[in-house]
Model the fold of this input.
Amino acid sequence: MEINQKQKIVILGSTGSIGQQTLNVCRRLNFEIAGLSCFNNIEILLKQIEEFMPEKVAVANLDSAIELTERLKKMPHIKTEILYGDQGNVELAKSACDKIVIAIIGFAALKPLLAAIEAKHTIALANKETLVSTGKIVLEQAKKHDAKIYPVDSETSAIWQCLAGKTEASEEIKQVWLTASGGPFRTYSKEQFYSITVEDALKHPVWSMGQKITIDSASMMNKGLELIEISRLFNLTGNQIKVIIHPQSIIHSMVEYLDGSVLAQMSLPNMELPIQYALTYDKRLPMPDKPKLDLAELGQLTFEAPDMERFPALRLAYEAQAEDGAMPAVLNAANEIAVRAFIKRIISFLDISAMVESTMQKFRHHSLYHSSTLNDILAADQWAREYTEQIIAQFR
Ligand code: NAD
Ligand code: MG
Done:
């Protein structure tokens, strides 16, 4: 489809950080919104409905869906249909559109994602947990149903752009350089890690994002999840993915080819760029409202090697990537539970990685360790959540 035609977009998770930035892109490009969804944030959803008048919305939390229904009854000019519960997001994922953006956080995005694949949609995928846990299955299904998946994360998009849109890495690639800002604790000593608070971890130096991914960036688990995501999307081994700290976050990642040539994708940090690229691929459109990179003003770009001792999450992710099977799902599930407990101030910052490590260690003796079917991965995910909860219960 030509992008100067009005595209119809569905956004799952429209009230979140990526969801709202996607709506900025849609405003800029004058795209039509066919559907929106959220878990329970109906205040924001209601404003979005009034502005974009989508045909349908889905609200996963039942009480919130009921409240939204009541409030919309008082606004008879709005004809938006409301879909309820988890199934509502799945239904919405199947509805007619030119592109669907999946910006739901966590593993809850899996069923809607698979539904969008079965509907043969072109998918702009921001959610990384589904690719980490069930990436092989998701990509196999996408191939089978001829659904396209375009990456939205800034690093995956950078690699995709350096590969000029190829989604499977070619044999000419030696390795990729996955850049990381290093997060708020990049320069902390080992001792300083003991006293990190939730507020400290929620202050990201570069990016403004949802809570969970901000904590993941502080622990560098975000980079760990991305390295698994990238290995899946571009069919690379762990050895071919090198993490490099780049505090200015101007280079969003690089591809090194066999002849030693390294291509980098650069821009000022701005998530709307990868979102817009995924929505308009393979065309580029202006973003007149966004400041542009001025290298002379910036002066320098710096780089340093990551420290896996202070940031064990990165080591754990490399291990999970190498072990494969259900291990990436276990890493992701344990991390989701541990991050939630940290935000609730039940465990400390250092406990997050310690719990992920204990859960992974225990899983190595589990009968599902070598499994890779969808049902087994879902069972391993469930097991990991329960096991991590059990360890956390000892802290209450
Ligand atoms: P967020 O917490 O700000 O928003 C999450 C959205 O998902 C909200 O709209 C919420 O209502 C919805 N949601 C949560 N649980 C749901 C459920 N069970 N059913 C339906 N909807 C549900 O998160 P975010 O920062 O926008 O991140 C979204 C995804 O994008 C994550 O997987 C994250 O890793 C990835 N991502 C985010 C960024 C970023 O800059 N924020 C960058 C790259 C990748
Ligand atoms: Mg990223």
